[in-house]
């Protein structure tokens, strides 16, 4: 009896796995290249929203309507396209690899711009320092430290103190 119940259980499991329905290709499927752009922008918007949501609200920027308007898509189209590509693992993986590459490229561009801005700020600081007409030492060295004498010897008997008043009457 146990063998028969195991056989029926196994047959039901195998039979249930056979009816996996695949989603049909949507009529308004977003092409892969455009999907890469949309997902890249979506990642940036998520990062901006996570970083400072209040600033986005103050500026009146609504991330999702902005994204939909910029790429001429609607939310239903985005969800259907995302679900379709998610069922097709290889295509979805290719899309996300390209998104990752674009984000890394944007990060390199941002870092290079930040380095340029830092160099400009450093050059402005140098100009400000030069415009004050102060010697370079005065900015880097303490003025009291330059006026102090050298160290004093602490050996015993290094100073001979002679009393100028000798009282002979006391002896």
TrEMBL record:
Where, if anywhere, are coiled coils annotated? 89-130
State the UniProt keywords alphabetically: Coiled coil
User: Which InterPro entries has this protein been placed in?
Assistant: DUF4296
Q: Name one Pfam family in it.
A: DUF4296
Q: Which residues form the DUF4296 domain?
A: 26-104
Please give the name of this protein.
DUF4296 domain-containing protein
Organism this protein belongs to: Salinimicrobium sediminis
